[in-house]
Amino acid sequence: TERKENLQQKLIKLKEEKNAVILAHYYQEPEIQEVADFIGDSLELAKKAAQTSAEIIVFAGVHFMAETAKILNPSKKVLLPDLNAGCSLAESCPPDAFREMKEKYPDHMVVTYINCSAEIKTLSDIVCTSSNAEKIINSIPQDKPIIFAPDKNLGSYLMKKTGRKMLLWDGACIVHEAFSLDKLLKLYKENPSAMIIAHPESEDHILKVANYIGSTSGMLNYVKNSDHDTFIVATEAGILHQMQKDVPNKILIPAPAKEDNTCACSECAFMKMNTLQKLYNCLKNEEPEIILDNDLMEKAHRPIKRMLELS
Ligand code: 13P
Ligand code: SF4
Hints:
The chain has 3 domains: 2-85 and 271-291, 3-Layer(aba) Sandwich (Rossmann fold); 89-174 and 297-310, 3-Layer(aba) Sandwich (Rossmann fold); 181-254, NadA-like (Rossmann fold). It contains 15 helices and 12 strands. The chain has helices at 2-17, 30-33, 42-51, 63-72, 88-91, 95-104, 118-122, 133-138, 152-162, 181-190, 204-208, 216-225, 239-246, 276-285, 294-310, and strands spanning 20-25, 38-40, 56-60, 77-79, 109-113, 126-128, 146-149, 166-168, 195-198, 212-213, 230-234, 251-254. Helix 11 links the parallel strand 9 and strand 10 (212-213). Residues 62, 87-89, 115, 173-175, 201, 236, 268, 270-271 line the site of iron/sulfur cluster.
């Protein structure tokens, strides 16, 4: 619409005036992705945040992502359009309870999925994302026991992939646990030539029937390079915008959710809290801003830095 385009133009002008960069996750609304300087998965966004020379970083994503960008740039202003854009995985791992678990297993190395709070990162030895998790686990000496948090689905997938036994925190992503295996198999029967691709945050029974498992960027690359022309995509539906742009002639079908919410697919309500209007307001007013304690940032930086060095 005219209003949307008008707002997008104003945003682009404003970010140039303010020397700001907009980083957006693939799960953001298309109208947000369209004005972003960079769209990526969690790892790519963290890398971009570590490299940017912009004075202001506007993070179109969820809280833990903006927090990571702030930890990588303590002297820069990092903005998040809606501070309530959380994450069920990050919420599932409260620091006090996690500290207790860690104290019970003092000889264990702590590997945390980037989808956790800054405070949990301060309790970690190394951070990982879905695109480098296997490599990170494999970099740890075989005889070193591991605690993996907070995603139990990604954790058990990694145990199978690496052959390592790990102690798992009992957390999950509500979006990736919403897929229905029955509906997925029915859809597959109707589209027998389709390839099923899934994010490793999905439950084991979904991963068992998947032809490819990978991060959001991994899935995009797979679809681009595959000879097949139909794909059933088991991750947040926002990915379909960029995917369809990459492969305009291929058929992309979102994997069905157990219960229909706003769409028949699975959407992250936290990611969708950001709107184009909120994004504009946030850059204009330079708030809401991510503010973190210096000591917390310093401690949380170590495991992120270790991950980036290995990626
Ligand atoms: P990736 O961006 O690493 O694929 O993670 C997906 C996700 O759920 C982000 O919140
Ligand atoms: Fe968190 Fe899942 Fe939403 Fe990603 S999709 S932000 S893991 S709730």
